[in-house]
């Protein structure tokens, strides 16, 4: 694991990395001396043009030196500026004692400027360090979640195979199996499907946040995939007392089949969960060189204020009294996958009427 200092050291601005970070510690003091000389020269030139003397330019360069190099070089630049102004401008113009009075007035101001610039740099570096530490912690969390999810998914796959074997045995026994046992088995089957979807969504989120979301494209017909997913959810559709109307027209393109399968599962599972007893329409078609996937339900609809944040992670739409289960990850994951394909997903809804989710995909990688 990386030490807390390592991300902090790499979190400076690019200018500091290339100019200051790898330099000798005395480089900052050399830069302070150089900026003081430049400031005094510019101040002398401006005094000749304006026919009056100001100390604004040296003070500005003192502040910039402190911001770039820190408190030490900033205070050093302040001292050099004060001495330079004293010997080259104030003492020759108004005498030694009058110039000392000016120095007593000017020195605290320029020291405050230098200290303020150094403090700005220190605060900025502190914020960069905290940001880097937070980013490292989030990356470690996502990596752990990804590993655990993958491991859990492996064990879950074994469990699903055994579950299918039991289903085959039950079907072979037919009426000899108690009806109550069959209902419990079907409930376990639905829970297993939900758990599989949840684990897949967690894995997808971990990949998208870590930047490892790679799209593996292959040519296939989106209508065939939609038909397969609709068939796989027939038990859930029947249990929810929904009627699935599938109008699936050919839409051939190159996409990541497994990820679009996840989009379809999430959209249909949402419709089944939140619109039980309603008609659900599933449509695929092409228009203007793009594939369209539409899932429409006639459920309770989504309030306008929730619709605006629908694809953000992850907020449940229902209130705490609603006993339907879900995490809110499904739509967020669907948007991430569609975005990775260069497509768009949107939702239209009216309370009391229902919701329409539309996925728009380019047929081939643009």
β content, as a range?
5-15%
Radius of gyration, in angstroms, nearest whole number: 34 Å
Shape: elongated
User: Could you give me the name of the CATH homologous superfamily of the largest domain?
Assistant: Histidine kinase-like ATPase, C-terminal domain
At the fold tier of CATH, the topology name of the largest domain is Heat Shock Protein 90
Major β-sheet profile:
5 strands, mixed
The helix/strand order is: HHHHHHHEHHEEHEEHHEE
CATH class of the largest domain: Alpha Beta
What's the tally of helices? 12
CA distance, first residue to last residue: 39 Å
Percent helix: 55-70%
Q: Low-confidence segments, ≥5 residues, pLDDT <50?
A: 1-22, 315-325
Average pLDDT value? 77
Give the tags.
366 residues; alpha+beta; Heat Shock Protein 90; 3 domains; five-stranded mixed β-sheet; two-stranded antiparallel ribbon; 7 strands; disordered N terminus
Which helices and strands, and how do they pair?
Blueprint: H1 5-9, H2 14-21, H3 27-50, H4 56-69, H5 71-94, H6 96-173, H7 179-210, E1 218-221, H8 222-232, H9 234-239, E2 243-248, E3 252-255, H10 257-274, E4 279-287, E5 290-297, H11 304-307, H12 329-340, E6 344-350, E7 354-362
Parallel strand pairs: 2-4
Antiparallel strand pairs: 1-3, 4-5, 5-7, 6-7
């Amino acid at each position: 694991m990386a030490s807390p200092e390592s991300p902090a050291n790499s979190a400076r601005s690019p200018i500091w990395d290339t100019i200051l970070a790898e330099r000798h510690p005395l480089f900052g003091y050399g830069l302070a001396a150089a900026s003081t000389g430049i400031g005094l020269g510019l101040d002398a030139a401006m005094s000749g043009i304006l026919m009056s003397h100001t100390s604004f330019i040296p003070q500005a360069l003192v502040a910039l030196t402190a911001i770039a190099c820190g408190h030490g070089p900033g205070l050093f630049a302040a001292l050099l500026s004060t001495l330079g102004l004293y010997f080259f401008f104030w003492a020759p113009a108004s005498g030694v004692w009058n110039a000392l009075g000016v120095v007593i007035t000017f020195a605290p101001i320029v020291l405050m400027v230098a200290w303020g610039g150094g403090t700005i740099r220190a605060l900025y570096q502190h914020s960069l360090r905290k940001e880097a530490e937070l980013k490292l912690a989030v990356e470690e969390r996502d990596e752990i979640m990804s590993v655990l999810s993958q491991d859990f998914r492996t064990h879950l796959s074994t469990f699903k195979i055994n579950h299918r074997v039991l289903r085959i045995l039950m079907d072979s026994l037919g009426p000899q199996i108690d009806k109550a046992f069959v209902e419990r088995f079907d409930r376990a089957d639905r829970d297993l499907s939900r758990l599989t979807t949840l684990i897949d969504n967690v894995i997808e989120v971990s990949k998208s946040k870590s930047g490892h979301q790679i799209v593996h494209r292959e040519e296939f017909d989106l209508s065939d995939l939609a038909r397969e997913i609709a068939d796989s959810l027939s038990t859930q559709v029947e249990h929810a007392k929904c009627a699935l109307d599938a109008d699936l027209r050919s839409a051939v393109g190159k996409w990541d089949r497994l990820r679009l399968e996840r989009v379809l599962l999430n959209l249909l599972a949402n419709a089944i969960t939140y619109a039980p007893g309603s008609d659900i329409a599933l449509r695929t078609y092409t228009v203007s060189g793009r594939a369209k996937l539409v899932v429409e339900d006639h459920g309770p609809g989504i309030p306008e204020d929730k619709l605006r944040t629908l694809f953000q992670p992850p907020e449940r739409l229902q209130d705490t009294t609603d006993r339907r289960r879900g995490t809110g990850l499904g739509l967020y994951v669907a948007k991430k996958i569609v975005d990775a394909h260069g497509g768009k997903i949107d939702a239209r809804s009216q309370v009391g009427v229902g919701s329409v989710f539309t996925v728009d995909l380019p047929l081939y990688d643009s």
